Automatic annotation (TrEMBL):
Compartment(s) where it occurs, according to its Swiss-Prot or TrEMBL record: Cell membrane
AAA+ ATPase domain segment(s): 38-195
PANTHER family: IRON(3+)-HYDROXAMATE IMPORT ATP-BINDING PROTEIN FHUC
DNA damage among keywords: no
Keyword Lipid metabolism set for record: no
Organismal lineage: Bacteria, Bacillati, Actinomycetota, Actinomycetes, Mycobacteriales
UniProt topology in membrane: Peripheral membrane protein
Name by which UniProt lists this protein: AAA+ ATPase domain-containing protein
Species whose genome carries this gene: Corynebacterium jeddahense
Assigned keywords, A-Z: Cell membrane, Ion transport, Iron, Iron transport, Membrane, Transport
Length: 228
């Protein structure tokens, strides 16, 4: 049985948030309804530009992670951060600890010299410890399908040892972490989903059923877009 969650609920004050952020479906939804975390692992998926990473970064700032990500307590949020003062958290009794992984930051910094981007991600996630909070922004970046399956297993094991994971992903593999609270963001807000209902899964399923047909269709579509 998992212990109490580090973060239980997220709130956004739209009067304090930037106008551009409030216009994204994720932030607009949380401003109106809040967002409650019900499982040790919460997965946010959906299309580009709907505010998933903005929401995750706001959670990270409110918890006390630095702008560039990394271990908790190394840096503090600053007033110029986009969601500073607008997003607040309802937290549990646990002491603060954990890691904020930003795909952009790990792409700029080689944490483990001489290794590929994907190898750096896997090395980093293998060092995650139980009983801490982990905020992961597109951790699948640079990972093969097999490595994503290995990451899925790592995250599930963490959740069984009192960790909490909040993850943004486009990977249909990572949406399938057993027992996760799976949420999809679209233009209408945030919705509970089953894996098979997500856009990520359906797009990959359609491609695998007819890879040549889909590839030819998309190539023709791109050609039509370039036509005068």
């Amino acid at each position: 049985m998992a212990g109490p969650l580090f973060i239980q609920r997220v709130h956004v004050d739209p009067a304090e948030a930037p106008e551009w952020a409030v216009k994204t479906p994720a932030i607009e939804h949380v401003a109106e309804f809040g967002l409650e975390f019900q499982q040790p692992i919460t997965i946010l998926t959906g299309g580009n530009g709907v505010g998933k990473s903005t929401l995750l970064e706001g959670i990270a700032r409110a918890w006390g992670f630095g702008v560039e990500g990394g271990t908790w307590g190394v840096d503090k949020p600053r007033a110029q951060d986009a969601m500073f003062g607008a997003l607040t958290l309802t937290t549990g009794p646990k002491a603060k600890a954990g890691y904020f992984l930003r795909a952009e930051a790990i792409a700029r910094v080689n944490y483990f010299g001489g290794r590929s981007h994907g190898e750096s991600v896997m090395e980093l996630t293998s060092r995650l410890i139980p009983n801490a909070l982990y905020l992961l922004d597109e951790p699948e970046s640079g990972l093969s399908a097999v490595a994503q399956m290995a990451l899925l297993a790592q995250l599930h094991a963490l959740a069984e040892h009192d960790a909490q994971v909040i993850m943004v992903t486009h990977s249909p593999i990572l949406t399938a972490v057993p027992g996760a609270q799976l949420l999809e963001v679209d233009e209408h807000g945030i919705h509970k989903r089953e894996v098979e209902e997500t856009m990520a899964f359906r797009a990959m399923r359609d491609f695998l059923e007819d890879p040549h047909g889909i590839a030819e269709f998309m190539a023709q579509w791109a050609s039509d877009q370039r036509a005068p």
